[in-house]
Design brief:
38% of the residues lie in helices and 18% in strands. The protein has 11 helices and 10 strands. The strands form 3 sheets. Strands 2-1-6-5-8 form a 5-stranded parallel sheet. A 3-stranded mixed sheet has the order 3-4-7.
């Protein structure tokens, strides 16, 4: 996969892209990154990329020319012109695990990282193929959100994670939060690992994990269960735990 980022602050990216799983993914040839300064594409002699909004109002708006020219440059260099252009924006669709899974099947992603009050609407209407937000809060710019999405997508690419079973068991991959994890020692400060995990009985361990995953979701993120048709077993669990459906 190729990932490109259009940004006014390219210095924010190297630390993240050259560390941990993102760096390992690049080293293994699963992904390559490109970071492009939008100012380099400005037709203004002062490299200006924003202007006052028509109609008045607070803040500045990103102008379309440098963003379009930067995107067209990246797409023009691409071997596959089918580039998904993602506008990182608080007005966008909430980014979910299923979106990461869908985007991980693409060949080329282009993230547009905004700043100031917002984008000229023509960027949204005529350039972006997707709009995503990582939460109902406001950031200084789209760079951090783009890197969050890039991390989520990259770890799903084939061969990136050391254990191929890791990603399918993550929180949200099944629609539920992940079950609790324990490691050595079996007892720490008087707190013991559940006996079932020490039993070596794989079927019982799997059943315990399934139940704990559902319970954790019901307690912490009941909103996730509203999108899920509940089985009779899950309904019995909720009743036993005195948690409303």
């Amino acid at each position: 996969m190729k990932m490109d980022f259009l940004t006014l602050f390219p210095d924010m990216f190297p630390g993240v892209l050259s560390s941990s799983i993102l760096k390992q993914a690049e080293d293994r040839g699963a992904v390559s990154y490109g970071v492009h300064n939008i100012r380099d594409f400005s037709a203004d002699k002062h490299r200006k990329t924003d202007d006052y909004p028509y109609g008045g109002g607070a803040g500045m708006v990103m102008t379309p020319q440098p963003v379009f020219d930067a995107a067209e440059f990246v797409i023009g260099q691409a071997s596959n012109k089918n580039v998904r252009t993602i506008l990182v924006c608080p007005q966008g669709k909430p980014f979910r695990q299923r979106d990461a899974e869908k985007l991980a099947s693409e060949d080329h992603l282009l993230f547009i990282c905004g700043h100031y009050e917002g984008y000229d609407e023509r960027i949204r209407e005529h350039l972006a193929t997707d709009e995503y937000s990582i939460g109902d809060f406001v950031l200084t710019g789209g760079e951090l959100a783009a890197m969050v999405m890039a991390d989520s997508i990259t770890r799903l690419l084939p061969g990136v994670l050391g254990n191929a079973a890791s990603a399918p068991e993550d929180s949200f991959s099944t629609g539920l939060l992940e079950y609790p994890h324990y490691t050595r020692p079996a007892e720490f400060k008087g707190w013991k690992v559940p006996d079932v995990l020490l039993s070596g009985h794989h079927q019982k361990i799997a059943a315990w994990r399934e139940e704990q995953s559902f319970k954790r979701t019901a307690e912490r993120r009941p909103d996730l269960l509203k999108e899920r048709p509940l089985s009779d077993k899950e309904k019995k669990w909720l009743k036993a735990w005195e948690i409303d459906e």
